[in-house]
Amino acid sequence: MDDLDAAFDSVLFLEQEFAAAGRSNGIEAGRASAAETAFGKGQALGRALGREIGFYRGFLLGLETGAIFVAVPERARKSIPKLKHAVNLVEQSVRSFDADDFLQGRLRLARAKFRALTKVLEIDNRLEIIEPRQGAPCGSF
Questions:
Q1: Which keywords appear in this protein's UniProt record, sorted alphabetically (predicted)?
Q2: pLDDT grade, residue 13 (50/70/90)?
Q3: Sign of CA dihedral 82, 86, 87, 92
Q4: CB distance 80 to 62 below 8 Å
């Protein structure tokens, strides 16, 4: 009888070991999957934010260098530094890893300054990002 009890006990302990190992492996796999998903989402959001800020920087550079052929009235000249400042604040928030709410507030400010400037310049201010074709080399659409 003791041999039979010992056999059942060893099977029970073996099951418990496998269950514990499976649980541990499951937790580790879940963490890895969550980290991978979060990384991908963060990368996508960061890419979109970078594109938007890059667009504002390019727009400002175009105005300053004359690459954007538009008459810049005095009212608009006063708005340009405000947009620059708002864009700088967003970039500063990104670099210092500010809380998302704080970053989003600064991004809303930059968008508002951009809309105000384009309204004064009488430029269509719809911002549309063109996504590259799947499999296309970088920079081609």
A1: Mitochondrion
A2: confident
A3: positive
A4: no
- Among 3, 76, 42, smallest CA distance to 68 is for 76
Give the integer Cα–Cα distance in Å for 60 and 56. 6
Domain boundaries, the chain: 2-121
SS3 readout for 47-76: HHHHHHHHHHHHHHHHHHHCCCCCCCCHHH
CA distance 79 to 58: 16
Cα torsion 56, 59, 63, 68 to 10°: value is: -170
Bigger pLDDT: 124 vs 65: 65
pTM of the model: 0.62
* Amino acid at site 52: E
* Interval 49-108: pLDDT, tens: 889 888 999 988 888 888 877 788 888 888 888 899 999 888 888 877 777 788 888 889
Q: How far is CA 109 from CA 76, 88, 124, in A?
A: 17, 11, 19
